[in-house]
């Protein structure tokens, strides 16, 4: 791959870190790789980075049908937290949160991780009981968490209407101070640059259209741009396209694809310096460093591959946010978009071997995988490198759907399903 120094970028008149993308060229694929990662989103790129960095495996290609980080990684609302209910998931997400805490230094790339805290609101007695249970479980796992009453919430978010006479009165919240937000594209580009510098080939505009499978073992991928590229192992990290890609190998995953949408307002002066989420009213909000209010909603209930959501869902989210923040009623919406999220019946991911030898899948992160990006890449890289699932990944194997050992995280998934 052609490398550009900071000086040559300057000579090209480019002085912003992301301009690396503009001068970057696709390498010509090799005939054979030790590992091919299908999908150049945050998770795929993180996997490639850790394969090279931690395991010295650099004969790796990431194959991306569009552009790097252009899938859900580009479309999410960047909430990072680890306050999941069950041990299996809270350990995995906490592993990721710990990696976030030093990620900018690790990648020498400012991923703008901002630990401004995450509030999950409770509006009913049952919400509050669930919150108590979850915070207690988190604390037993060494994860920071507090239960706040409306007065304490008001001190953190003075503009939020916590009055008792609302349709959905705010009775309290869980508060994870170490949670926060990050810059989505910086995460993808930080991992991409790090992986590329360690020798990984990042191949964009190249779609995987099938697999070469011999005697029950994957031996390569078929692509639209370069034909067959052979590999000893293949890891698929294709989020909302997982069902489609799995079917190319004759597999059927317990997964559904749904549209999930979000939108941003015009930039306004700083007014909200934390993240506010409410599962009950199906809306959540934060303010980006640019000043936009970043607002998201629940998934569309029908399956779909259109990267946009339906009107009733967004209308519902706007209504919910305006009930909480009546003074945002005259803020104008700037952009709206959607992604395709891959959801499992228990709202937990699949990080697993498959019945086809050397073919792995990492998917099913649904509405909540951005926060997992470094952790997911880290454990998936270890699993691929050693051909043995990482301890933190083991509970998320496909086997759980045979044994019935599901890990029901709907309550903590953050977005109503
Ligand atoms: P992606 O970034 O989607 O990457 C998969 C890549 O695979 C894509 O680039 C795609 O083009 C590529 N691909 C697919 N098929 C092929 C093929 N055949 N050949 C080659 N390449 C292929 N999570 C949170 O934790 N916090 C949030 O606040 C949050 N908010 C969200 C808001 C919205 C609106 C959406 C849509 C999602 C949100 N998420 C959130 C979820 C999060 O975005 C995802 O779980 C996460 O980004 C998944 O990352 P990924 O790398 O697996 O997938
Ligand atoms: O998982 O925290 C989350 C989340 C927030 C919005 C979408 N997902």
Annotation, overall tally of beta strands: 18
**SS element count, helices:** 13
* Poorly predicted ranges: 1-17
On the 0 to 100 scale, the average pLDDT is: 93
Summarize the biggest pleated sheet: 8 strands, mixed
Strand content: 15-25%
Label the overall shape: globular
Percent of residues in helices comes to 25-40%
Sheet/helix structural class: alpha/beta
Q: Over all CA atoms, what is the radius of gyration? A: 21 Å
What distance separates the N and C termini? 43 Å
Listed once per kind, the bound small molecules are:
flavin-adenine dinucleotide, pyrrole-2-carboxylate
Describe this structure in words.
By secondary structure, the protein is of the alpha/beta class. The protein is 30% helix and 24% strand. It contains 13 helices and 18 strands. Strands 1, 2, 8, 9, 10, 11, 17 and 18 form an eight-stranded mixed beta sheet that branches. An eight-stranded mixed beta sheet has the order 5-6-4-13-14-15-12-16. Helix 3 runs parallel beside helix 9, helix 3 packs across helix 12 and helix 5 packs across helix 12. It is globular, with a radius of gyration of 21 Å. Pyrrole-2-carboxylate (PYC) binds next to loops.
């Amino acid at each position: 791959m052609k490398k550009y120094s900071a000086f040559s970028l300057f000579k090209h008149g480019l002085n912003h870190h992301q301009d690396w993308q503009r001068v970057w060229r696709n390498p010509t694929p090799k005939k054979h790789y030790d590992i091919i990662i299908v999908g150049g989103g945050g998770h795929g790129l993180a996997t490639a980075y850790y394969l090279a960095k931690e395991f010295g495996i650099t004969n790796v290609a990431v194959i991306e049908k569009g552009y790097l980080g252009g899938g859900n990684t580009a479309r999410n609302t960047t909430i990072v937290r680890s306050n999941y209910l069950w041990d299996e998931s809270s350990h995995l997400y906490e592993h990721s949160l710990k990696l976030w805490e030093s990620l900018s230094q690790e990648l020498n790339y400012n991923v703008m991780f901002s630990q401004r805290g995450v509030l999950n609101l409770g509006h009913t007695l049952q919400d509050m009981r669930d919150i108590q249970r979850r915070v207690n479980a988190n604390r037993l796992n060494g994860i920071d968490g507090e239960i706040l009453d409306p007065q304490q919430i008001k001190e953190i978010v003075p503009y939020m209407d916590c009055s008792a006479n609302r349709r959905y009165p705010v009775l309290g919240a869980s508060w994870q101070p170490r949670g926060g937000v990050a810059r989505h594209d910086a995460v993808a580009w930080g991992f991409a640059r790090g992986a590329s510098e360690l020798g990984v080939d990042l191949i964009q505009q190249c779609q995987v259209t099938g697999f070469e499978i011999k005697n029950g073992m994957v031996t390569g991928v078929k692509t639209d741009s370069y034909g067959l590229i052979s590999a000893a192992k293949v890891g698929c990290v294709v989020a909302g396209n997982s069902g489609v890609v799995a079917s190319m190998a004759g597999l059927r995953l317990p997964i559904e694809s749904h549209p999930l949408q979000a939108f941003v307002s015009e930039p306004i002066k700083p007014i909200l310096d934390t993240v506010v989420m409410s599962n009950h009213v199906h809306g959540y909000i934060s303010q980006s460093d640019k000043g936009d209010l970043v607002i998201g909603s629940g998934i569309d209930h029908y399956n779909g591959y259109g990267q946009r959501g339906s009107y009733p869902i967004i209308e519902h989210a706007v209504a919910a946010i305006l009930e909480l923040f009546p003074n945002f009623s005259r803020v104008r919406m700037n952009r709206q978009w959607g992604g395709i999220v891959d959801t499992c019946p228990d709202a937990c991911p699949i990080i697993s071997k498959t019945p086809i030898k050397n073919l792995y899948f990492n998917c099913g992160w649904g509405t909540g995988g951005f926060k997992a990006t470094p952790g997911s890449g880290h454990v998936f890289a270890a699993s691929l490198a050693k051909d043995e699932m990482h301890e933190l990944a083991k509970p998320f194997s496909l086997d759980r759907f045979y044994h019935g050992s599901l890990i029901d995280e709907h309550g903590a998934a953050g977005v109503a399903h």
